[in-house]
Amino acid sequence: MKLSWEQSAILFLLVSGDLGLPLAIDETMRYITFSLMTFREAKRDVTLNGYLIPKGWKVFVWYRAIHQDPEVYPNPRIFDPSRFDVSK
């Protein structure tokens, strides 16, 4: 079976030791997003983008929307473990 370019990049980074396993794992979890969504309960009244979310309401959190948002993660479709490197 032939490796995809993402798999090849992961393998190269792990074998070369340039970034280390923890960064590759964090980026894999962001890139793939195993848990697509979850519900959370507002513990207090919150205003978000001009909308009131009253205490006790259930809020739907869609992780993929966050993990693929270029305002949160620049170039979100690129597999880049170095984005989690806090030493840079």
Automatic annotation (TrEMBL):
Superkingdom field: Eukaryota
Signal sequence segment: 1-20
Gene3D superfamilies hit by this protein: Cytochrome P450
InterPro entries: Cyt_P450, Cyt_P450_B, Cyt_P450_sf
Pfam families in the cross-refs: p450
Keywords: Iron, Metal-binding, Signal
Family: Belongs to the cytochrome P450 family.
Entry protein name: Cytochrome P450
